[in-house]
């Protein structure tokens, strides 16, 4: 439902109008209750609620129950209760939901291991013809259901996430769905990187990537996240069959060394985004790529071991780099930055992440930002104790197009950060700012009794600000209370629950998001 600003303005005007009735000033809406709202308005209000909340609303009255169970409110459904989804107690209950409540309106569904059965998948295929997005969570599985009788599977999927188990082999299930997923454009295979405790444990190749790539020739986006068996041969396999590949992410796949990168770019001419955070890249393999001929625009090589020579070779040869994440690299120093400015092409750069690059001096950073800061939409210079508010204040007028900023280090510093001046500088120079994170230790933040004024100016001038992340402490409480008084309750967050990243600026960001 589309309610324009003019309509809301008219409603507000009428609501604020009062009339003299029997000598008493009364609003025309004095006797109006929520029960008298039209169904389409209630439907619009309910659309902002989670499904848990909608289920509670259904208990209020018969009218609300009818609205709550309207299939238009059930287009996107998560049935993983541990990730804010609904809990379904039995397969029978789920089958009833699919038939009665989901139906043709369902576009997206998340299923936990206990609900992934051939009966459920057959029912989804039969009753939900418009289902295009699916997440299947096998991560906690110790045993799969029997899929020997499975004859049907949703055939219009464009987006699929498979959360892998460490020990359950998927081939028995995958063999049954290969014929139904050739229309996939976006594939996420999510590993168990964050759960691994002992590196000595035996590693199993629980899904056959070489067979999977043959069944998915139309993939545009591939995300292989934290999978301990993924190596360069799997990248080679996908590149041999997916000629439309635009984005490849292998973050936290420790066995990837880059040995097939040259072949990847020769085959995948459309590849614009390559994310290789915390992989085991070998500099010689990276330097073997014909970077001058690639269409690459977005690159993440953070937390790898590439050399200074490799970085210079890379940055001076890529012709049109727009996004660079190269944090946690001891090899990224002033020499690299100077070579990039003089021999490369950073003129199209819109996002730069140099987190924890301790070998960069503030002087070199200032020279780079003086020349290219105005074009940047995102800048991350966190994790460097020598980069304080002084550098940020000096470059703030240059960064007037910034949407994302991350600054500070959680380490205790020997100097204090004058956060009132910093906030004032941000407010007066960065009107487009959407996300901001200050990682400094709360003990290093110095602010006065008049800090409310600086926060007020920030809140009033940075109207697009949707996320402000601070370490938990007294200053966080002050800023949070200030924004809450202005009914902006979700803006201020703690660093324990939120992180700001330049990834929001990736061209395929929405395709890369998985739950």
UniProtKB/TrEMBL annotation:
<feature type="domain" description="F-box">
    <location>
        <begin position="31"/>
        <end position="77"/>
    </location>
</feature>
<dbReference type="InterPro" id="IPR032675">
    <property type="entry name" value="LRR_dom_sf"/>
</dbReference>
<dbReference type="GO" id="GO:0031398">
    <property type="term" value="P:positive regulation of protein ubiquitination"/>
</dbReference>
<dbReference type="InterPro" id="IPR001810">
    <property type="entry name" value="F-box_dom"/>
</dbReference>
<dbReference type="Pfam" id="PF12937">
    <property type="entry name" value="F-box-like"/>
</dbReference>
<dbReference type="InterPro" id="IPR036047">
    <property type="entry name" value="F-box-like_dom_sf"/>
</dbReference>
<protein>
    <submittedName>
        <fullName>F-box/LRR-repeat protein fbxl-1 isoform X5</fullName>
    </submittedName>
</protein>
